[in-house]
Amino acid sequence: MSDDGDDHENGAHEHGHDHHEHEGDHDHHAHDLEELGIAVLTVSSSRSINEDPSGAAIAELVEEAGHTVVVRELVGDDYDSVQDAVDRFVGREDTDCVVTTGGTGVTPDDVTVEAVEPLFEKELPGFGELFRSLSVEDIGTRVVGTRATAGIADGVPVFCLPGSESAVRLAVDDIVVAEAPHLAGLARREDDGKENDDGEETDEGA
Fold it and tell me: How far is C-alpha 94 from the geometric centre of its chain's CA atoms?
């Protein structure tokens, strides 16, 4: 795994972002899942599962938020290995969300984005936009070098984060734990025959 996102470690991010309650949120979040099964994947050719601070940080933060880590693995910087792991994770009955760390930079072996994006039936560009916006506080214009992304694969939200622990903590603490239950609930809604937009008007106006 390259050091994509490691510039985050050069600045101390203060997690002071309030997740405000908005009027009407009780309807907006009607389909939220209260407890998620989270699959964690570290992409690295230089680390081991026992020396993986970023993967450990993901597990720590999601468990503190009341969710469960159902599987945690490490694979090398290899297109097929990354794609196969994420595809396997989203196919598990106990997995409601997948979070990966590593391989989102610009070095030749950064292939996570290329491997995962073909699995998306829907992309979530707002995640990468928001993550980079929040990251400016830590690393300034170097945010252009991270390709953190997210999407829905087989009805499961997948978040692809940089490899540094500080970047992971920022993304999970400020975005993933706040939005994953909502996204997972919406993505798995069955067609009730009443609407085809799955609440898009509500979400877009939130």
Answer: 17
| Structural domains of the chain, with CATH | 33-188 (3.40.980.10)
Which residues on neighbouring strands pair with residue 41, listed in sequence order? 73, 100
Query: Quick check: 108 and 49 in contact, CB under 8 A?
Result: no
Give the whole-angstrom CA distance, residue 150 versus residue 204: 17
The pLDDT tens digits for 172-206 are 999 999 999 999 999 986 543 334 444 454 455 44
Nearest CA among 124, 142, 141 for reference residue 187: 124
Instruction: Please give the full DSSP string across the chain, using - where no structure is assigned.
Output: ---TTGGGGGS--------PPPTTHHHHTTT--SS-EEEEEEE-SS-BTTB-HHHHHHHHHHHHTT-EEEEEEEE-S-HHHHHHHHHHHHT-TT-SEEEEES--SSSTT--HHHHHGGG-SEE-HHHHHHHHHHHHHHHGGGGGG---EEEEETTEEEEEE-SSHHHHHHHIIIIIHHHHHHHHHHHT----SS-SSTTHHHHHT-
- State pLDDT tens for residues 58-91: 999 999 999 999 999 999 999 999 999 999 999 9
User: Model's pTM, two decimal places?
Assistant: 0.81
Q: What is the largest CA-CA distance in the chain?
A: 51
Q: Which residues contact 44 (CB under 8 A, 6 or more apart)?
A: 1, 52, 74, 76, 77, 102, 103, 163
